[in-house]
């Protein structure tokens, strides 16, 4: 009995300590919250002042001499730098969610407040993409070679819709935490969600049977390509991060980015082949839609969507290639 | 020219000075973040280890009754104190970040969804209620349009996608609420997963004779369902507000799609509406089972939807009946 009482005494002491620590924690949490509010409001105020300053600069820029022009350009570049710093600062401050996250999650704060947490979250996102890509590849192989039922096709399509929706949510969270994913590489997940959704509603019929094998083969190639991308890009990013040339929060993407010229150029032909397969899908679907016995709206809608995907992917990648050629040209000109 | 430039330069210098202040404040903020993160870790670790030891102690004390009255008293005191401590730990944890459950981990990853103060928790709950009410109103409108004005599979598909998205989003938001201390239990969470599945199956149902047979009934049912849920949200939130002011209900209690014990105080009039909705679900399931027995039956969706509606009916009806019976039983001794 006395043994219990001694142990109990020990636990009571630990408990008291915990209560004090927790009280201190709640207090510091309140201090932190007020600091957060101050920082956020100062950043907003500064942003506004910088905007006003830029307006006044552009007005004076029209009527001034060379020395003044130099000063103005200098201030302009410093303003740009400051705006980048604000973006990085805000990655550590809680903020209101954008429209998309607000609709899905509501007003829960998704800012991860430490570097390790951010990096761990990014790592987790990459792993999620990898595992899902492998699962989708096996799913497509099963549907194409083993099970020829609409039900299994539906399950595969639902998985695709869910995968792309989840990607969009996780990417919104990453952007809220300072990741600089931009433009097409975000939108194309929304387009892919829409595509998979439309495929889902396409009823069984002769039109569907004509397109099915092509679509499944395309999905297998797509998953294989994404797997390659993930594998080689993450290795390359790891190396570049160690050299300090890329940010910790840079992600693997489904396209070609400027940093990939260092060793990943061999991926370009694979990527272009995938883009042209999307164009081929779109053309086949337009042809199917033109037939007399086609009465499903899904065919035409899918044709359009594949065309949009092709244009977005192809033009974005061509832009990166073009920029590289421009840079090389400038380098050659400088040498001469 | 230079005069306006000097005024610009002055403006720039004052903005720059503010910027330096901001940088210092932000550095201090990052320091505090680290402190808080350490405090969080130590609190969480201490709670976990104390909880484990308390549970061990409790299980070894449970069979002991002591060799004297004083000992027995001391033992009882320790047992009750253990319970108090365990409750305090749960309350403390509502303010500490924690790992997400399986569902949230799959969808969001490891971002922390704990809202760290009472107002944000309450605001989040309020937002959830508004989301339900607004989306229900939109669904009401669309099902009205689909039933009376437009008869295209395309518009039906949009309604079904909206239903699917609505129920999936509800499940995500409810998981976040549960993670923040809301006590939603059992059937009222699970039935959103079933409703999501049902909407998904209807989505894949091709436009044939069977679909046309069931369509109007389903749209009318959706219209009624949305109407009842709007009623529920409206009256329940008013009632909950009153009860919270009287201190009789918890701040994080939510409006649900069923009948709960606290609703006897003024919301009894909703019961017949609810039972009517449940029996409509039974009627849907019986119609679908009958359709499945027709000779032309070939779509698996018919049987699957029939099963889903049947499960929904059983769950809804028996859960509501349980509340009803409990009330009768608690009133019986008074009449004796």
Automatic annotation (TrEMBL), chain A:
UniProt keyword annotation of Isomerase present: no
Coiled coil: 1-35
Compartment(s): Nucleus inner membrane
GO CC annotation terms, alphabetical: nuclear inner membrane
Signal peptide: none
Family, as annotated: Belongs to the TMEM120 family.
Function: Necessary for efficient adipogenesis. Does not show ion channel activity.
Name the UniProt record assigns to this protein: Transmembrane protein 120B
Taxon lineage: Eukaryota, Metazoa, Chordata, Craniata, Vertebrata
UniProtKB/TrEMBL annotation, chain B:
Membrane topology: Multi-pass membrane protein
Domain of life: Eukaryota
Protein's UniProt keywords contain Ubl conjugation: no
Locations listed in the record: Nucleus inner membrane
Keywords: Membrane, Transmembrane, Transmembrane helix
InterPro entries attached to this UniProt entry: TMEM120A/B (IPR012926)
Coiled coil: none
Protein name per the record: Transmembrane protein 120Ab
Organism: Cynoglossus semilaevis
